[in-house]
Amino acid sequence: MALEVKNISFRYRNGPWILKNVSFCVDEGERVALVGPSGYGKSTLSKIIAGYLQPTAGEILWQGKPLPETGYCPVQLVYQHPEKAINPRWKMADSLHEGWTPEQSMLDAMGIKPEWLGRWPNELSGGELQRFCVVRALSPETRLLIADEMSTMLDVITQAQIWHLVLKVVEERKMGLIAITHNQPLAEKIASRIIDLPALNRLDSIT
Ligand SMILES: Nc1ncnc2c1ncn2[C@@H]1O[C@H](COP(=O)(O)OP(=O)(O)OP(=O)(O)O)[C@@H](O)[C@H]1O
User: Fold this and answer.
1) SS3 (DSSP) at 31
2) Which CATH architecture best describes the domain 1-198?
């Protein structure tokens, strides 16, 4: 079992419980889609799995152990909002090369133009920025990619281009994938299993 989400419960400060006793596993190289209504906690759960948020209770295990606190994290998250994931004070080349140096062929496949590398993040569109975020997350050390509404704000041609590359890399490297999407046809196309978050969330067990 590559990823174990074990009895995860979460609330923001003293707010309402968002997740209660959520458990599921993702096998090595498995592709799953995580679905649920808007505001149901999918992004929150993805941040917990990637180690950006600490759960209020429960644990995330990767290959049977907690995620490493230092060094490269084998679980990488691509957010819905690329502008929040990129350092505004770094030029794009620096953000891109922060974790690894992708080959030119990957930049070409993602449609990243050479002139974008010398720009600041605010000089690119959301879709252009998102391409950088996707490539940055696809280091050879990444073993599980969480794509949280990764392509929602893109036009259909760009969406297809990005998903084509991501699925090719995931397949070649036998990586795991958790795709969070409201797009049912996309979920069915990219994933072999659909995880319905409301069915796992034990909010009724709150005392
Ligand atoms: N930083 C925060 N502080 C307090 N509440 C938050 C915070 N971030 C999210 N929430 C709340 O937590 C709940 C779950 O939000 P989350 O973004 O995880 O849902 P989601 O299922 O990903 O939604 P969507 O499909 O609309 O993206 C929402 O009610 C949201 O308002």
Assistant:
1) strand
2) 3-Layer(aba) Sandwich (3.40)
Mutational pocket test of ligand 1: of 14, 18, 180, 182, the residue with most ligand atoms within 8 Å of the beta carbon: 18
> Atom of ligand 1 at shortest distance to CA of 44?
18
pTM metric for this prediction: 0.93
Distance of CA 97 to the CA centre of its chain: 19
Strand, helix or coil for residue 106:
helix
Q: HSE (CB half, 13 Å, CA atoms) of 111?
A: 15
Q: Which amino acid residue places its CA nearest to atom 8 of ligand 1?
A: 44
Residues 42, 194 contacting (CB under 8 angstroms) = no
Interface ipTM: 0.96
Q: Which residues partner with 196 through β-bridges?
A: 35
Say how many Å lie between the CA of residue 109 and the centre of ligand 1.
Answer: 33
d(CA 106, CA 88): 23
What the block records as the tokens of 78 is: 């691509």
Note the pLDDT tens digit of each residue in 107-126. 999 999 999 999 999 999 98
Domain ranges of the chain: 1-198
